[in-house]
Amino acid sequence: MTFVYVLKRFGYFVLVVFAAATLIFLLPRLATERNPIVQRMGQTAAAAGVLSEGVQEMQKAWEAKFGLDQPLWKQYLHYIRDLATLEFGYSLAYYPAKVKDQITNALPWTIGLFGTATLISFVFGSLGGALLAWPKAPRFLQYLLPFVLTLSAVPYYLLGLVLLFLFAFTTGIFPLSGGYSIGIVPSLSLPFILDILHHSILPGLAMVLAGVGFWSLQMRGLMVMGLEENYITFAEAKGLKGIRVLFRYAIRNALLPQVTSLAITLGQMISGAILVEVVFGYPGLGTLLLKAVSGFDYNLISGIVFIIILIIAMTTFLLDLIYPLLDPRIIYRRETR
Amino acid sequence: MKDEVLRVINLRVYYHTSLGQLKAVDGVTFSINSGERFGLVGESGSGKSTLAFALMRLIKPPGYIEGGEVLLDGLDLVKISDDEIRNVRLAKIALVPQGAMNSLNPVVRIKDQIIDGMVDHVEDIPRNTLEKRVHDLLEKVGLKHEVSHKFPHELSGGMKQRVCLAIAISLNPKVIIADEPTSALDVVVQRQVMLTLDQMQKDLGVSVLLVGHDIGLMAQFVDRVGVMYAGKLVEVDSVKEALKEPLHPYTKLLITCPPSLDEKGEFKGIPGLPPLLLNPPSGCVFHPRCPQVMSRCCAEVPILNEISPGRFVACHLYNEVKI
Amino acid sequence: MNTFEKNWKGATAYFRNNPKLIAGVSIILALVLFWLIGSLIVSPARAQPISGLPDQPPSLKYLLGTDSNGRDLLAVIIVGTGLTLRIGFLAGAIGLGIAIALGFLSGYYGGFLDTIIRGVVDVLLTIPALAVLVVIAAMISGVITLNLMIIIVASLSWMLPTRTIRAQVLTMREKAYIPMAKISGMKNLEIIIKELIPNLLPYLAAGFVGATSAAVLATIGLEALGLGPQSLPTLGMTIFWAVSFSAMLRGMWWWWLPPVIIIAALFVGLFLLTAGLDEIANPKLRRVV
């Protein structure tokens, strides 16, 4: 792995984050002339009956305090500087809590759920898909195909609703909401961890079921093409054991485009994960976002959106670094250009 | 009879397509002796590659081995179990593939691709023995030790072909099948590879079945040659006699076709097209294109007969003549 | 036969031999019919609040019961299906339009323009659409009309189809018939219309379905957070209200389950369409005749 390659990918990472930050900065300022918070504040105050001069004074005071009366480019610089320390300001819905703290509380839940569910569905989905394409695999797997096909089309959100109904509401096996039961004191004890797991299973399952379908379908397609390659024939001519041909020759090569599509669909998957959290009241970024939206908490919304984009950009960067390890031809190609 | 290492008896390989049965190999019989070089020559679609693959039981559906025997050291490769044939491949009979460009796994180092073949046949070989063997093999095919650490895309076409050669000899097989090993290479590299193959065969005394369409190449390398046409073996001869005095009309055409440096004249091809193997002509399969066709050729299928010691031909021209 | 006629004949032939395509189209058609015929049978006015007593379970009068605001849920579902379909397909069409324009500009003219467009598309693809949409939608919250929803959702559904179309235009540009057409005196625009577009049809169709799928996904996503047209009973908003009013906990399955089933059907239909169109575009995936 060359330094130049890493530098390029890092540059891309910075570019994406910057573009996102700028977009988040510019968009609302294009839609309305004044800062939406100030606008909102004015509306609320006026609705409560405060006289218009009083409202205007209030708005001016707010703007002065938060530097909103300065020229746009100055605001932008301040914004970027703040962003570097992940400082998003105060949360309106949870005032006087800061956005940073709200996000810090919710983030581990989202990463835990999303990370685990993605890992499980990718690994099992890819394996399943590979076996579906392997002529010597057990027959019953073929019957799973239409079922898996249907599941992969439906967004996680809907699957979550159905699972919630089936397993939480009607049969009561799993809890209806939350990250852990009400009344339990959070600690590092085993009962607490089990309680968390108990609450995580349904949302996780929603993502895994839909995800497994998608990954196995993709992998199967890749394997079907891959098994026609000459190196597979030669591997068999060498008298290699079946398992070795499957894993080291077939799967290993199909893994490359499979991982690429993982990087591409990350954005979509995390959006889905966020919505699943909403369904299950899971205390991650999803539920936080819902509250932010319903409370018109602009600072919180921008903060969450930025964090999500940051997570995706970082994960994509990491995958970019892993990729050359999987496919030794990548850097070779770039270097020979 | 010298000791035979491979004997093929009436081998038939048919492809079952929705349009009918395609008789890719239709009753082929020949044998190869120990240490002998046998060339299998024919145009595209003659069935020679299918035959080569069938010997190692690498035919995939919709192709099936319909019948016949392939006896290697007395063992019938057609009838043994899947596990047994896996053991036989590489250890007793090895393949040097046609497109070495794509025959090596792009994401695995050369060293590991040479080793995995050995490891899957012989248990418990210590690591340093394996590595030493890899270096020895690379030396034998004229490659430097550094090659073992590389990935296939870092090697040239000729180097990759030689790696495949190295893999083929790694377990000292009895027979090596070389399926058009040089067709994708330029002439200079072609020569290098053939020289390597030549040297190796002399050193190890292994039998080589060289499959190809270039009879000139055959002439320089093999001892005996078998000519295939439309799934049938029409002539088997020592290569010298086949060139000097070809028996079958098709062989005659094959030899006169390639332009020579001595005589300059018109470019001659063989008129007509190879037959559709779905609906082969009746009687002798070559009769529509044969310049010496007789009336019985359309009706009767000629049988491969030994008309003089070591010289076989399937043609009605020779049915009455027995030397 | 010119290119157009040849492709039409080819297309209809594959239509018959492609079960996924047929299944996909059937499902979508069924949904459209459900909406159209339903609108004739059940008056859309009943989808308004206080059409009936609130929280009624299904009965002969109200086949799907009513919600907490007294809406007749059968009417809601019918109207909602129409709304969601409209948002999806119109946004998909707009998205496709953008994709065609950008894809052609990028692929046919190449050069600096291509680099810029490609860069923008790649960066936008990395950023999750939902995130940006949430920001946009939250800004305008409260006054999201149907048309505004369509525009918002279309604005981030065009990226992947642009890439596909660009790739195809690039491939086709190199093929022989472009220089041939140029030699025979056709102008660039003429070439685009008469030669390129007919050959692009499977990809355009796939692009449309892709843009529509992305649009519907975005719609459902936004509405799940309550960021849809507030006063219109789209399917996604219906689910949102159902969840807000704790319909599931109150055992009111008739409120949230029907929209879920219809949306699921819509997604499956779109998915089958995509798979079917993939088979047409990529011959290797086709079934052997």
Encode the helix/strand succession of chain A as letters. Answer: HHHHHHHHHHHHH
Choose one word for the global shape of chain A.
Answer: globular
Strand-residue fraction of chain A?
Answer: under 5%
Share of β-strand residues of chain C: under 5%
- What's the rounded overall pLDDT mean of chain C? 79
Number of strands of chain C: 0
The parts of chain A where pLDDT drops under 50 for at least 5 residues are none
Fraction of residues in H or I helices of chain C: over 70%
Number of helices of chain A: 13
What structural class do you assign from the helix and strand content of chain C? Answer: mainly alpha
Calculate the mean pLDDT score of chain A and round it.
80
The largest chain-to-chain contact, stated as pair and per-chain residue counts, equals: A-C, 53 and 41 residues
Uncertain residue ranges of chain C: none
The count of strands of chain A amounts to 0
Terminal CA distance of chain A: 16 Å
- Which word captures the global form of chain C? elongated
Q: What can be said about the biggest beta sheet of chain A?
A: none
Radius of gyration of chain C: 22 Å
Question: Quaternary status of these chains?
Answer: heterotrimer
Return the string of H and E elements of chain C.
Answer: HHHHHHHHHHH
The number of helical runs of chain C is 11
Task: Note the main attributes of this structure.
heterotrimer; A: 337 residues; mainly alpha; 13 helices; B: 323 residues; alpha/beta; eight-stranded mixed beta sheet; four-stranded antiparallel beta sheet; 10 helices; 12 strands; 30% helix; globular
Task: Explain what the structure shows.
The complex is a heterotrimer of chains A (about 325), B (about 325) and C (about 290). Helices cover about 80% and strands about 0% of the residues of chain A. Chain A has about 325 residues and is mostly helical. Chain B is about 30% helix and about 25% strand. Chain B has an 8-stranded mixed sheet, sandwiched between helices. In chain B, strands 2-1-4-5 form a 4-stranded antiparallel sheet, covered by helices on one side. Chain B starts with a strand and ends in a 10-residue tail after the last strand. Chain C contains 11 helices and no strands. Chain C has helices at about 5-15, 20-40, 75-110, 110-125, 130-140, 145-155, 160-175, 175-185, 190-225, 235-245, 255-280. Chains in contact: A-B, A-C.
